[in-house]
């Protein structure tokens, strides 16, 4: 029998995805640029090998798949994808589908999709989240492409995806780059979640003198409550781990310089491009960039010293509750911002992104999976037209409840000289967003003064310039 699907690229993610596909009962043809890797993969696949068709040439690979052929490409994002597509295309026939499962920039995905229009071939941009474990046992899958091409792969994809309440965490989200866009925003939110957790860790470590193990216990505890999520869970786990070399807590011997591969930055660029404020995500990306300036930070500390004022609140159950709720409030802010970016992109690119479905397929499998996403699913299902998550009845109530904690924690951190950029940015967003009369009236007056840019009046009277007098721009 021919393979149901093909997969190119047997790196860890590709290999795990192929094993997952085989395990769910589908025959899968596999190909890797270096045939050795293909052979090794096949030989180590155990029982699953009976459903794996190892191919050493692209011709054999294509011939092994049942038409119309879906081919998953799981290789390094960027140029390698274009090269792989170019090598594959001459062997494909009308109806075949190339599926890019990497962390592609959705603009590249759109371009690839459009390039194939009219060629008979189609393209799917597929966001896959969940890291190596997810790929092997159930990722969250975000699909962009034509509904027809999705129909050809739906059975395989939904069978390999993670499940929540027995529903697969896989969905078709819209045309061309929709899937990769949603994956990008997933990663932006992932950055914010991680940064905000790290800031709370910083308060506990530097403001309250807690050890890694003590902080780990706190996260383990929080994971039993409303913060329950994969990222909180692994935070508890990594804080408990000891370095085999020194016996010290592992996190204490890890250099404080964070890497980033681009998806966080892309979400901020796209948010800015469309004029959507995504302050918590922006702060998280900037914090990683700042973390990379290790040598400069060392020089600055030598110059300024560490100005530590005692943390204004004593450690105890009350402060712990405040920290937990502050993190929860800030998390709401980050998700509200991420969903707002997707809502705007949906309008901009004509995707009709289904917000409740996105929240649904993020409930399991992906890195940001959590109980919280089930609450978002419910809130968006009840109020699908809400302009922002925090305007839904469920989330406005949660904001009312938790915002005071965020205020207290951010001000306490500021008073003791501790950096909490993402928490503070989320707070600033809340405060500005829920204020009907802001301060941009002054910005408008200034713009009109120096550039005669004009303004709108609150009373609607049509007199769009000020009486600025000497030095002001000519109207
Ligand atoms: C996932 C992850 C995964 C990876 C990102 C971010 O959803 O499985 O998001 O795709 O973590 O590429 O990586 P960086 O932190 O290196 O930018």
Automatic annotation (TrEMBL):
It catalyses: 6-phospho-D-gluconate + NADP(+) = D-ribulose 5-phosphate + CO2 + NADPH. NCBIfam families: gnd, PRK09287.1. Catalyzes the oxidative decarboxylation of 6-phosphogluconate to ribulose 5-phosphate and CO(2), with concomitant reduction of NADP to NADPH. Signal peptide: none annotated. Its EC number is 1.1.1.44. Keywords: Gluconate utilization, NADP, Oxidoreductase, Pentose shunt. The gene is gndA. Substrate binds at residues 103, 129-131, 186-187, 191, 261, 288, 447, 453. It comes from Ectorhizobium quercum. This is 6-phosphogluconate dehydrogenase, decarboxylating. Residues 179-469 form the 6-phosphogluconate dehydrogenase C-terminal domain. Homodimer.
């Amino acid at each position: 029998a021919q393979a149901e699907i093909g997969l190119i690229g047997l790196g860890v993610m590709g290999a795990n995805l192929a094993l997952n596909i085989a395990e769910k009962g589908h025959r899968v043809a596999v190909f890797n640029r270096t045939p050795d890797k293909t052979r090794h993969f096949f030989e180590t696949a155990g029982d699953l090998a009976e459903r794996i068709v190892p191919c050493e040439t692209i011709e054999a690979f294509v011939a092994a798949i049942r038409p119309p052929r879906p081919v998953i490409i799981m290789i390094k994002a960027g140029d390698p994808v274009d090269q792989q597509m170019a090598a594959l295309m001459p062997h494909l026939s009308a109806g075949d589908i190339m599926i890019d499962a990497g962390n592609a920039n959705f603009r590249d995905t759109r371009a690839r999709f459009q390039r194939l229009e009219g060629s008979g071939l189609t393209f799917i941009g597929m966001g896959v989240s969940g890291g190596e474990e997810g790929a092997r046992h159930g990722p969250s899958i975000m699909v962009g492409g034509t509904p027809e091409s999705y129909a050809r792969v739906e059975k395989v994809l939904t069978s390999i995806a993670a499940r929540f309440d027995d529903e697969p965490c896989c969905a078709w989200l819209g045309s061309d780059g929709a899937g990769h866009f949603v994956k990008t925003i997933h990663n932006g939110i992932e950055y914010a979640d991680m940064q905000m957790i790290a800031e709370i860790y910083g308060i506990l470590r530097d403001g309250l003198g807690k050890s890694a193990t003590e902080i780990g216990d706190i996260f383990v505890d929080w994971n039993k409550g409303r913060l329950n999520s994969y990222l909180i869970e692994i935070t508890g786990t990594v804080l408990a781990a000891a370095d085999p070399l020194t016996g010290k807590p592992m996190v204490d011997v890890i250099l404080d310089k964070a890497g980033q591969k681009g998806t966080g930055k892309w979400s901020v660029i796209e948010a800015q491009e469309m004029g959507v404020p995504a302050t918590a995500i922006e702060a998280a990306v900037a914090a990683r960039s700042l973390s990379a300036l290790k040598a400069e930070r060392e020089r600055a500390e030598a110059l300024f010293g560490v100005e530590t004022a005692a943390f204004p609140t004593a450690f105890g159950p009350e402060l712990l509750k405040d920290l937990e709720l502050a993190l929860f409030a800030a998390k709401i802010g980050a998700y509200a911002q991420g969903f707002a970016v997707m809502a705007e992109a949906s309008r901009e690119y004509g995707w009709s992104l289904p917000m409740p479905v996105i929240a649904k397929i993020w409930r399991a499998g992906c890195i940001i999976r959590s109980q919280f996403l089930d609450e978002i699913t419910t809130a968006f299902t009840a109020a699908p037209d809400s302009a922002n998550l925090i305007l839904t009845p469920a989330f406005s109530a949660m904001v009312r409840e938790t915002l005071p904690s965020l205020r207290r924690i951010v001000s306490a951190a500021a008073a003791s000289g501790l950096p909490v950029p993402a928490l503070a940015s989320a707070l600033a967003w809340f405060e500005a967003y829920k204020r009907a009369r802001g301060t941009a009236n002054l910005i408008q007056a200034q713009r009109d003064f120096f550039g005669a840019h004009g303004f709108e009046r609150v009373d609607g009277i049509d007199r769009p310039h000020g009486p600025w007098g000497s030095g002001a721009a000519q109207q």
